[in-house]
Here is the input.
Amino acid sequence: MSRDQEYLRSLAHELIALPAETGWLEFKHNNAEPQEIGEYISALSNSAALDGKSHAYLIWGVDDGSYTFVGTDFSPHKKKIGNEELENWLLRQLSPKISFHFYSVTLDELAIVILEIDRAFRHPVQFSGSAYIRIGSYKKRLKDFPEKERQLWRVLDDTPFEMLAASEKVSSDEVLKLLDFAAYFDLLNKPLPNGRDGILDALASDRLIEAMGGGYWRIFNLGAILFAKKLSDFGNLQRKAVQVIVYQGTGRVTTLREQEGARGYAAGFEGLIGFINNLLPINEVIGQALRKSVSVYPELAIRELVCTK
Here is the structure.
């Protein structure tokens, strides 16, 4: 999700107030060597999974000894390796390609950069063919610590994708803005509760969201991928959007039309079926008095085919 300045300032103050750097948090002043950033993405992402965190953070503009904000000259969006932008260079060498985002924020007229990194999922994150981990406050190669590697694999095997966080520290109003709760109640044939709290409690009961305390909520991948009003609001979930591609003939050489869905699977399912039906040929059937158009393929068959895909 995009982060506004108020949220980023609050996050920076919250992280710097921690007793010390953790496995999923690292502070820097100006050190922004690209290879080291990539290795830290791997190490922090893997350590976040071990520590049960949905995100890891690397923050520039902090004195590593006193843990105070001092500002930074690092500008990630201007940084290039040859002719390639830093973010693209980093992403290209990550395996698997997890989501990460650089954010710039101003604190007391000091420039701060926050790199937010998704936790590892299913496989340890590698950079340039090597996986890293945090041991204390040090970045090490994962293969040199076999017990940590076995522990990480156990964690990755036990955590289903649906129960990972799509977004955290989301206010009640933001939850209702991001998720199509009306579609949720409509599909379950339940009446819409009168108040906001009743809606949130219902979503939480089906593990679509979870209370975090302080009035904030965690939206799980399950809730986002099923009921997002816009999947693009949830970072890398946009890559899981439904795509409908119409090819010429029976091959996949020439594309006639391509459409990518914007909404979550459940919220957008009826619209998806309608879109596909409008692309299919129809027959005109003449009845006793009236002529009507009938799809060549039964709608039930289309629905089942889309569901199995």
